[in-house]
């Protein structure tokens, strides 16, 4: 059903475009015939007899001819459910007011020609604007193709968004459920449709690049011809004005000059339109590149998910083997652990006894350290007393002083022996 609706909308768009192109070709033929008959026809873009009429050039709504039919198509497709609308996106919805508003920002002009009244025959050569009329028609065809590609691109983007919303990445516990992305075949169908759209986009892009290259070459050749003719015309105009001075009035000369300026303006407008179409083609190519990148990313993601699925299955099998091996190790380790528990209980009792002895040793060490500190303090006091006595004594042969020194030496030896004994006691 959605493919039938898409085909119906595409056929209706083609018929409308064919009718519009036929109408445009008729107007171009009328202009060519009238230009071949009349020699003084002007190409003023601002006057009411201009080639580019303001009534036919509608910048705000250039797709006014197809708007009524496409609104009927959107009403026909509007009865579907929102879930079905995501899958069955129709191309006709792009011709609504919203698409017109978005496309009105870009430079899209449709050139239509009015047929001036027939005059006397004139066998003069075609002007540059007349030569460029087929180029303008080709540019319009390019614009219509670009519009269809834009519609297809919007359809592809909506389809990708729907697929990403539906097949979002799940957690590690839900990956292997029955509703996962690996067991759903619709994802592969969407990938196949994406590949087909990519192939069509590549072919159309190559065709448009070739057409644009041919148009640029044609444009450059005709621009050279135009510049040469312009220079020749200016030289002939100066010669004619010198030869026929007095025959043509100043008003007639000004009129001819204004007509030439209007033709130059129309040529610049055509050149601007060509550049705008070229920029639009570049934007389309950029969009195609982004589309190709997105498709490559989705394909890589799908392949990575398949690889991760296989790897996780292998890991689960390895873990089952590891669990069986660990169970066997547990059965063998339990008796060893019971023996270790018994030995650790016996060692804990020995450790308690060692702790008691260690406490006693620490108490003895503390007391010995206090004794050592006390002996050092007494030694310092004796040293001070000895220094004072040495300072006060001025006679070394004093018998009392000698006796005191001998006594102090004996006391020092006694103290030294006590310190040595304490060190022996402290050493293990």
From TrEMBL:
Bias-annotated ranges (Low complexity): 34-54
Disordered: region residues: 34-62, 95-120
Gene it is expressed from: Ccdc96
Originating organism: Fopius arisanus
Biased composition (Basic and acidic residues): 98-120
Protein name: Ccdc96 protein
Domain of life: Eukaryota
């Amino acid at each position: 059903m959605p493919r039938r609706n898409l085909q119906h909308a595409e056929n209706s768009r083609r018929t409308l475009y064919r009718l519009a192109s036929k109408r445009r070709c008729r107007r171009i033929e009328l202009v060519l015939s009238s230009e071949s008959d009349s020699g003084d026809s002007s190409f003023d873009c601002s006057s009411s007899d201009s080639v580019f009429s303001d009534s036919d050039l509608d910048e705000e709504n250039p797709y006014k001819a197809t708007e009524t039919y496409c609104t009927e198509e959107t009403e026909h497709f509007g009865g579907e459910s929102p879930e079905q609308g995501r899958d069955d996106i129709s191309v006709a919805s792009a011709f609504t007011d919203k698409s017109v508003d978005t496309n009105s920002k870009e430079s899209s002009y449709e050139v239509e020609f009015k047929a001036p009244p027939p005059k006397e025959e004139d066998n003069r050569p075609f002007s540059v604007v007349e030569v460029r009329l087929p180029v303008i028609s080709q540019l319009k065809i390019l614009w219509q193709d670009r519009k269809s590609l834009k519609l297809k691109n919007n359809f592809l983007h909506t389809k990708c968004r729907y697929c990403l919303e539906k097949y979002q990445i799940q957690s590690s516990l839900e990956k292997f459920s029955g509703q996962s992305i690996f067991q759903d075949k619709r994802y592969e169908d969407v990938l196949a449709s994406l590949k087909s759209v990519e192939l069509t986009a590549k072919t159309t892009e190559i065709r448009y690049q070739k057409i644009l290259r041919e148009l640029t070459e044609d444009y450059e050749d005709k621009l050279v011809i135009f510049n040469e003719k312009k220079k020749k015309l200016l030289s002939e105009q100066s010669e004619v004005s010198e030869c026929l001075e007095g025959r043509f009035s100043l008003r007639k000369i000004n009129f001819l000059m204004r007509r030439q300026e209007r033709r130059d303006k129309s040529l610049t407008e055509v050149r601007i339109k060509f550049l705008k179409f070229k920029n639009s083609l570049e934007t389309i190519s950029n969009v195609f590149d982004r589309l190709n990148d997105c498709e490559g990313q989705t394909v890589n993601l799908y392949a990575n998910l398949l690889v991760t699925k296989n790897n996780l299955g292998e890991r689960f099998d390895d873990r089952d083997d590891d669990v069986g091996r660990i169970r066997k190790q547990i059965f063998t380790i339990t008796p060893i652990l019971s023996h270790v528990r018994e030995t650790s209980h016996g060692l804990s009792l020995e450790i308690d006894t060692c702790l008691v002895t260690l406490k006693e040793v620490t108490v003895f060490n503390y007391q010995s350290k206090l004794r050592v500190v006390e002996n050092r303090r007494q030694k310092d006091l004796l040293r001070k007393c000895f220094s004072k006595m040495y300072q006060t004594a001025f006679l070394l042969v004093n018998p009392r002083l000698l006796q005191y020194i001998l006594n102090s030496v004996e006391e020092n030896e006694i103290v030294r022996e006590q310190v040595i004994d304490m060190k022996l006691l402290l050493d293990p």
